[in-house]
Each structure stands twice: as structure tokens, then as C-alpha cells.
Amino acid sequence: MSVMECLRARAVLQDCADQLSVIGNIIRPRAETQKSGSIESDFRVESLKSQKHFQVQASLHALETLNKVQKDRQFVSDVIHVLMAELQEKNTFNSLFFAIDEERKRKARLLETIKREEEGRLRIKALQKELLDIRKQKLEECERLEELVALLKEQVQELRVRTSREGTFVRSCADQLVFQGLQHSKHKENQLEEDVKVRVRLWISDDCTLWVWMLQRRIEEELDVHVEMESFLQHQNATNCYAKQSVISSDEAVRSLKETLKSWMRRFEKDLEEKDQEITALQNKRNSSQMRMQELSRKCREMEEVVIEDRMEKERLRAQLEKDEKERKAATKLQAWWRGMIVRKGLGSPKKPPKKKDGKKGKKKRK
């Protein structure tokens, strides 16, 4: 750049700088006035918000515009002064290009910051909305869980009641089954005894009648034979030996029948003893089972009595503790009231008169 072009550029820049300084001197008093007016309007806004709202907004917008113009003017003035100095020293415009690049970068950073701030604001709104949704879901879940807990408590209470009823029912059923078993065993025992007696009677009656009938028949036959043999012996003496032998054989048959009858009687007595032993074993078994059931019932009753006594003892101790606590509180209140009454009425225990110190001296004088 030539010297004349440099001088012309400097003259133009100097003129621009002077105009910018004049503009700055003009804007500064207006800004101060506007600022003071905005402060006064703030006080007025506090007193008259409904009337001055739009005026305050307009004044604030104007103040921001003036501040921005002042900053831009100051920036251009600084760039012109730096450019003038560079032209005077080096005859170049590098500082202008550098300032323009820096300003572009600053604006780009500012726009990026604004964009990030806007994204962050949107992200915050989204997170706040999500937080509200999560809180609402948690509240609904808490309510649902509380309802579920209440329902489970009701089910547990119903289960306890049902369990207690089932226990009572099972206990009554067990007692009833035991009673029915005892009655059935007793009835069966009586039935077996009757059956045994009937069988024994039938067996005795049938066997004895049969054997008696057979013996009677044999006796009758023997008698007939004996009569016939006697009549025959009377007619024929030659057959005496044969008649004698026949009589001996009949006596041996009678003796054998008697021995058979004795053996049957022994067998009958043996079978009767076995049946008696079986009946005795059944009776012992029934008695043992009955004793065991009675022992279990007694233990169950004792346990129930222990539980009832323990509950009654706990209830009595709780009532006693409550009574003692109430009596202690009542005694404390009564003592406090009585002390307050004594203090308010000015009552108190009378003071004891002081002891006389010259008692010993008087005694000595008497001596």
C-alpha cells in the first residue's frame, strides 16, 4: 500500500473513530437516564404491578438494546484504533482480519453455548417430566402394594381363623373317632363273646346229643343183641362161648366210645381256653389303646390348660402393671397438687424451737 492510500485510510478511520466517540457520548447519558428510569419503574412496579407491567418490559428491552449498541460501538472503536496504529507502523490490515475472525469465532461459541443451553433446558424438562412419571408410577405401585399387604393380612387372618376351626374340628373328630372305636370294640367284643358262647353251646349240644343218641342206639342194639344172644344161648348151649365173646366185644366198644367222648371233651376244653385267651388278648389290647387315648387326651387337656393359664397370667400381669402405672401417676399428681397447695397456702411443717445451750450450766449450778 502506498503512503497516500495509507494516509487516506487513516483519515477515514480517524473520522469514523471521532463519530463513534461522539455517538458514545450521546448514548451514555441516555443509557444512564434509561437505567435510572428503569430503577424508578421497578419501585413503581412493586407498588403498581398491574398498571406499569408493559412499560417496564419496554424500558428493559430498550436498556438491553442500548447496552448492545454501546458494546458494538466500543468494539468497532477499539478495532479502528488498533488498525490505525498498524497502518501507521506497518501499512497493513492484518489486525482487522484477525479481529473479524475472532469476532466470528466468539459468535460461533456463543451460538454453540446458546444451543447447548437450549438442549440442556429441553433435557431438563424431559427429565422433570420423566421424574414426575416415575414418581406417579411409584406412588401407584406403593398404593398397589399397600392394597396387596392389606389383602394378604386379611387372608392371613382368615387362614388363622380357618386353621383354628380346622384344629377344633379335627380334635372333635378325633375324640368322636376314639369314642366310636371304643364303642365298636366293645360291641365287637360283646358280639364275639356271644358268638363264642353260642358256638360253644351249639357245639356242646350238637356233639353231646349226637354222641348220646349214638350211645343210646348202640346200647339199644347191644341190648337187642344181648337178648337175642341169651335166647339163642338158651336154645343152644353149644354157642355159649361165642355169646361170651360177643358180650366182651360189646364192653370194649363201650369203653372205646367213652374214651373218644373224653378226648372230644378235652379238645373242647382246649379250644375254649384258646378262645378265652384270644378274648383276653383283645381285651388287653383294647384296654391299652383306651389307656393310650385317655393319656393323649389328658396331655392335650393339660397343654390347653397350660396355654390358658399362661395367657391368663400374662393378662393379669399386664393389668397389674397398668394398674401400678396408673396408681403411680395418680400418686405423683396428688403429691404435686398437695405440694402446690402447701406452697400456695403458705403452709409447712412448723420449725422446731432451738435447743438451749445453758442447760448443762444450770445443772452444774444446781450441783
TrEMBL record:
Cellular compartment(s): Cytoplasm, Cytoskeleton, Flagellum axoneme
Keyword Glycosyltransferase: no
Record-linked InterPro entries: IQ_motif_EF-hand-BS, IQCG
Gene3D superfamilies: 1.20.5.190
GO annotation, biological process: sperm axoneme assembly
Keywords annotated in UniProt: Cell projection, Cilium, Coiled coil, Cytoplasm, Cytoskeleton, Flagellum
Entry keyword Coiled coil: yes
Protein name: Dynein regulatory complex protein 9
